[in-house]
Amino acid sequence: MSVIQTENLTKIYGKNETAVTALDRVNIQIEEGEFVAVMGPSGCGKSTLMHLLGGLDKPTSGIVRINQISIAEMGDDELTKLRRRKIGFVFQFFNLIPVLDAAENAALPMTLDGMKPDLARKKACEWLERFGMANRMKNRPDQLSGGQQQRVAIARALVADPTIILADEPTGNLDTHSGDEIAGLLRNVSNDYNRTVIMVTHDPRIAAYANRIIFLKDGSVIDETILEKKNDNNAGLVADKMKKISD
Amino acid sequence: MNIQFRLALRYLSGRKMRTALTTLAIVFGVLVIFGMNIVLPTMITAIKTNIYAASGQASLTISHITGNLFDQSLVENVLPINGVLAATGKMVRTINLPKNYFDQDSEKPDRVSVLNLQGLDLDNVQSVHSFPLQDGRFLLPEDRDAVVITQSLADKISVKIGDSMRIPTVVGEKQLTVVGLLFPRTLPGDEDIFVNLPYAQEIMNCSGKINLIEANIDNFEDQGKRDEVVNAIQERLGLDFQIGTLNSNEELLGVMDMGQMILNIFGVLALFMGAFIIFNTFRTIVLERRYDIGLLRAVGASRSMITGMILIEGLIQGIIGSLAGIVSGYFLGYGILRLAQEPMSAFVNIKLGTPVVPPALVGICLLLGVSISVLSGLIPAIKAARITPLDALRPSVADVNYRKQTGIFFLIGSIFIGVGILLLFSDQMSWIAAGAFAFLLGLVCITPAVVRPFALLFGKIIARIYHRQGIGELAQGNMARHPGRTAITVSATLLGLAVAVAAGTLVSSVSISVANLIKISMGSDYLLVPPSVSLWGTNIGASADLEQKLRAVEQVDVVSSLRFAESKVNENSVSVLGINPHDYPWAGGLTFVDGSESDYDQLNDGRSMFINSIFAMTVGAKKGDVIELATTDGRKPYRVAAVVNDLLNAKVTTVFISQKNMEKDFQVTEDIFIQVNLKENADINAADAAIKTAASGYDQFTVISGKEYSQSLMNQLQTAFSGFYFLLILLAVPSLLAMLNTLSIAVIERTREIGMLRAVGATRKQIRLMMTVEGLLLAAFGTILGILGGLYLGFLFVKGIGTFMPSEYIFPLSGVLAALIIGLSFGILAAVIPSRQAARLDVIRALRYE
């Protein structure tokens, strides 16, 4: 059953002569438990697609369905609740609140939803422990490395038991080693916890961790690749495809 | 803990410096309001205590509406009234004592400076009052100079039963024998001394007269019955009598109310400046936390949660700031009262005591401080809630809509300034005050529109000065890039300095005008000054004997005395001063507002009077009008012969009549202030000795040369004004806070930019200079507008004061220079910490900063 479905999803910024089509009639379906990477050259509409899927932005036309329900008609409050309960976000920058410690950051969606802080913290700590952050719970973001910060962000994305995780360039700000760790973690999230993960990246090596890769160019889906198994050649394959698209 | 609270607390504690500066803005506003509002009520309480202490324990007190003496036989009219159980006549006089009267030691502070003399009618007083004795006996009808005092007074002046104590009286100093001691006084107020009524009348030179009837009535607790009795008494005695408490010092209370209003305006302005600072800070906070807010929205925070979080920060700061403001305001009030004690005891002989804090004031200050903090954060909080998760994830573009800034606000501001200028021509104090507010508000409104032209003009000058540093353009650009924020900072500086310049103008104009008045009013060679020169009614004067003795001194040319009575015109209390129209111009003198010296003769012509400017304004009278004055014989018509002013009565509603009329209508023959002029080429030393000899036995007067007295008055004025200058500096402090806040925020906000500048080759010195120049530009802008506003406001203040007391406008050149220096140095001072922070930024970390 499709967790996410888009129909002729279109987003145009500006008007008249200054109008720029960021997404042009995009139709995609993503199933439960899939790990999908969205790739493409700069300005192809990757992030716009992510924002529309997460209800952060409204499409110019077309439909986004989450769990079979169209989110186009939802008001701000409904969208806020949807993001709180059904979707987890991981961004490249500005991922954590600087004045909260790791456990508090991870617990944020629960505390915002009214859960008792102790209980929310306990749940957050469980996720942080799973991601090897047991001894970093009380550290503030500026006391954590980039990789550790992204682990906290992933724990936060998972803490409210959402069905979908949206990650926008989650490794863009990390070194190779940390990037691999985070990509592996997202793959585990999909495999072990049966969450649907959609990740935007421009790095073929990172994209190779996904099950399926959607290639975008000039706002349209131009190709899809399914990667059956994780192996060292996948990154090369993805890189070749990207090169072809860019050319 | 609620997540909004937790976030609010964490953000506040995460930026300690900024939190402290913002909270300080509220502390300051509340401090001024709280401090000022305890100073005057404390003074008022001290005065009221003096009034009420006299009324004792009787259920009703009856006095003449003028507070003057009336015939003792009136008691007989009260006694037969149904419901009156007992009634007694009293002669009550407050005796202001000269300094060191009892201890004769100028080193030690006086433990007793005021006595309340009560002449008791022993036939019936004990049926109204009880006098529980601790030692000795009570007064007997046959006693002459016997006195009963309290144990506490006996302790203070070290006397016991059988000892004698001296008191100044109208007929010279008298020795009284202490025959009984009452239990120590527990209530605040002046110490009472009790003597036989006939003796009191003798030493106060008012045979057969009393000024108070005390009565006990049946069913006192029953409001209806009590009203019945009160109405019956009123009917019997007529409307010239009032039933309740003694009437005195009302005129001073009125002046104090007005003072409190002026100080409250200062306090509200200070709080207004605080609101500007908080608003500015919150706006920047929202801008700075755009990414945090966007993230919170992305992970599920609703709009109301974001608004709530910002408002909670305001609430926390408001509560802490207001509480700190109240505490520091108490100490400010305490300090001012300590400073005011000296002039208060010198002029009105009243002890101020510790600050009186009305519980409602604490509530009001807390409410004001908290609500202003929360309200200042409201618009930024609403704006914060409008941030979408997507806004936070996109790079920010600092866009300036110049047209919008010059639009509606500029128009409104121009209208306000126009209205302010028009109201300059009004003669009404309330319109003048409205004009002042309109002008200031207008300046605040047009500020955003003039930020850019100002920045361009002064930026070019700075760029020339520092042309090798290349920072002039940057500082100018930075100032103009956020016209709204710059305008808010400039407005806070503007208000702070405008109020300071205006108050400075007022002080310099009033002090020069008062100095001129002192020269005129105190121009005589010798003065016999009572302890209180404002509240004449509390002084014990002298009978005509003293004046005769002074006239008899060989070297003396002119003797002129003042006599005092209280009166009422409509419901307004009026001080009536009796002068000798022939002598007064030669020894003292009045400044004529409408009329001339030749009008003195008119005072001898039937019932004529001079009125002062406050009287003219309060009653709405002018030269030629006929006004009815309440006298001890009912209301009498007096014709206004001239409008005049003098120093001593400048603040109080006063009329001057001839001493002849005063004796006829008020039965007052007691001199309470005497001026003496010597003959030309008189032997000063011989005159000095002779005058002092003549005045011996009248210790209630201090004999002092006119020059010396003028000098001591000027010194006291200087002391009072130095306190005022301190207040002016306090009023300018919020502008420093505003600039410091804005510049600190600028550094935080531009961290990446500063990092980039350092990366492309800017030295630490250049960065420091850039921030300092920015501070200087901000300060110059605020200072120029502030001086402009202050000059206008000052002119209006002086004009407003001129409607009820003599004052001429003096251009405050030194005030303007001081404001310029203070404003610009505040700009540099405010930049010290932020520029150091900016210069010390680590380039790599700054570039990574988001």
Provide mean pLDDT of chain A, rounded: 87
Question: What is the H-and-E element order of chain A?
Answer: EEEEHEEHEHHHEHEHEEH
Gross morphology of chain B: elongated
Q: What radius of gyration of chain A results from the CA coordinates?
A: 18 Å
Major pleated sheet of chain A: 6 strands, mixed
Distance between the termini of chain A: 36 Å
Keywords (chain B): Cell membrane, Membrane, Transmembrane, Transmembrane helix
Domain ABC3 transporter permease C-terminal (chain B): 264-389, 726-842
Transmembrane segments (chain B): 20-40, 261-282, 319-340, 360-385, 406-425, 431-458, 487-507, 724-748, 769-797, 809-833
Subcellular location (chain B): Cell membrane
Keywords:
heterodimer, A: 247 residues, alpha/beta, Rossmann fold, six-stranded mixed sheet, five-stranded antiparallel sheet, 8 helices, 11 strands, globular, B: 850 residues, alpha+beta, 4 domains, ten-stranded mixed sheet, 57% helix, elongated, ABC-type transport system (chain B), Macrolide_Exporter_MacB (chain B), cell membrane (chain B), transmembrane (chain B), ABC3_permease_C (chain B)
Summed up, what is this model?
Chain A is an alpha/beta fold and 247 residues long. Chain A has 8 helices and 11 strands.
Give me the secondary-structure topology.
The complex is a heterodimer of chains A (247) and B (850).
Chain A lengths: L1 E12 L6 E7 L2 E3 L3 E5 L6 H8 L7 E6 L2 E2 L5 H10 L1 E4 L11 H11 L4 H14 L15 H14 L4 E5 L7 H18 L2 E5 L3 H4 L4 E6 L2 E7 L6 H14 L1
Parallel strand pairs in A: 4-9, 4-10, 7-8, 8-9
Antiparallel strand pairs in A: 1-2, 1-3, 1-5, 5-6, 10-11
Helix pairs in contact in A: 3-4, 3-5, 4-5, 5-6
Chain B lengths: L2 H12 L1 H38 L6 E5 L5 E2 L3 H4 L5 E13 L17 E7 L12 E4 L9 E5 H7 L6 E4 L6 E9 L8 E6 H7 L5 E2 L1 E6 L5 H15 L3 E3 L6 H39 L1 H9 L4 H45 L11 H27 L3 H5 L8 H5 L1 H16 L5 H37 L6 H10 L1 H39 L4 E4 L14 H8 L4 E14 L2 E8 L4 H4 L3 E4 L13 E5 H8 L5 E6 L2 E12 L8 E5 H8 L4 E8 L5 H12 L6 E4 H44 L1 H9 L4 H39 L10 H28 L2 H6 L2
Parallel strand pairs in B: 4-9, 6-8, 15-20, 17-19
Antiparallel strand pairs in B: 1-11, 1-12, 2-10, 3-4, 3-11, 5-8, 6-9, 7-8, 13-21, 13-22, 14-15, 14-21, 16-19, 17-20, 18-19
Helix pairs in contact in B: 1-9, 2-7, 2-9, 2-10, 2-22, 7-10, 7-16, 7-22, 9-10, 9-22, 13-14, 14-15, 14-16, 14-24, 15-24, 16-22, 16-24, 16-25, 22-24, 22-25, 24-25
Pfam family, one (chain A): ABC_tran
GO molecular function, one term (chain A): ATP binding
Organism (chain A): Flexilinea flocculi
